[in-house]
Design brief:
mainly alpha; hpI Integrase, Chain A; 303 residues; single chain; 4% strand; 3-stranded antiparallel β-sheet; DNA polymerase, domain 1
Length: 303
């Protein structure tokens, strides 16, 4: 089979399995670049490359060429993950008989602690929606669901009106891999949703919970843009993105005494290790408080 045709099938497979839109786009672009490399190694144009021509040597040397070219480690790791997933899919579907990426390892990278907002900054952001501005009710819903329920931006824009049980104060969320979970709604979130739904513009796609001005489902890009605007209104002087509010949600829960397993369930993490990074955030915060407050934390140097 031609590699481009196999890639088209793999892209459709990712979409059917509920991969996020950004992951599908990134993996597809990464694999097109990888297939172009494989084709060049064979003296072919990419459309002429067959899947049988994807070799173990190509899967090894291609990531090295990206690193040598100055690509960031995180981006190289994503390319490797895409190649591994693609080759595994080809074997499982019987398109190829041997997996050329079987021994390909994802490069280790230092884990960066996720950035989050302190409580005082969060409060300023939550009060940023301006009632004089069109769309302020939707802004409130965006903030309350990202911070109050810890949603991913893809989960937020994917919500439908039937997913919110305002009387029961719960929200049904479709997460990664099309795994559904139920998360609680705070009192402010319920209030924001009631106000928004009562004044939502007529027409449009009624199934979608959050609508743009034309009545279509709100996009993740629009949420990022709106959140940046609200952060500027709140004079936070830092880049605030949707996932930062998810990080803030988890960090504040742990600071408030929530157990790690409960936070894992609320976030929809498949593995506990994905949630454990937030314990490092709270430890760093405790250390910072200690270093600033304890009289023996900073002793004057002796001569």
């Amino acid at each position: 089979m031609l590699a481009d045709a196999a890639l088209a099938r793999f892209t459709a497979y990712m979409e059917a399995r509920g991969f996020s839109e950004l992951t599908v786009m990134a993996y597809t672009a990464d694999l097109r670049r990888f297939l172009a490399y494989c084709a060049a190694e064979e003296g072919l144009a990419r459309p002429e490359l067959a899947t049988e021509k994807i070799t173990p040597a190509a899967t090894r040397y291609y990531p090295r060429s990206l690193a040598t070219g100055g690509m960031a480690k995180k981006s190289v790791a994503r390319h490797v993950a895409a190649i591994r997933s693609f080759c595994k899919y080809l074997c499982r579907e019987g398109i190829i008989t041997r997996n050329p990426a079987q021994k390909l390892l994802i490069p280790k990278q230092a884990k960066k602690l996720p950035r989050f907002l302190y409580r005082e900054h969060t409060e300023k952001l939550m009060t940023a929606p301006d009632e004089e501005r069109p769309g302020w009710r939707r802004d409130r819903v965006i903030l309350e669901l990202l911070y109050g329920s810890g949603l991913r931006v893809s989960e937020l824009v994917g919500l439908n009106t039937g997913d919110a049980d305002l009387d029961g104060q719960i929200l049904r969320v479709m997460g990664k891999g099309r795994r559904q979970r139920v998360v609680p709604l705070t009192d402010p979130a319920v209030s924001a949703l009631r106000d928004y739904l009562a004044g939502r513009p007529p027409g449009g796609k009624k199934k979608a919970l959050l609508l743009n001005r034309s009545g279509s489902r709100l996009s993740a890009r629009s949420v990022r843009r709106d959140l940046a605007r609200l952060a500027e209104t709140a004079a936070l002087h830092q880049h605030v993105h949707p996932h930062m509010l998810r990080h803030t949600f988890a960090t504040h829960l742990l600071d408030g005494g929530a157990d790690l397993r409960s936070v894992q369930e609320l976030l929809g993490h498949r593995r506990l290790s994905s949630t454990q990074i937030y314990t490092h955030l709270t430890r760093e915060k405790i250390r910072a408080v200690y270093m600033n407050a304890h009289p023996r934390a900073k002793l004057e140097p002796t001569e």
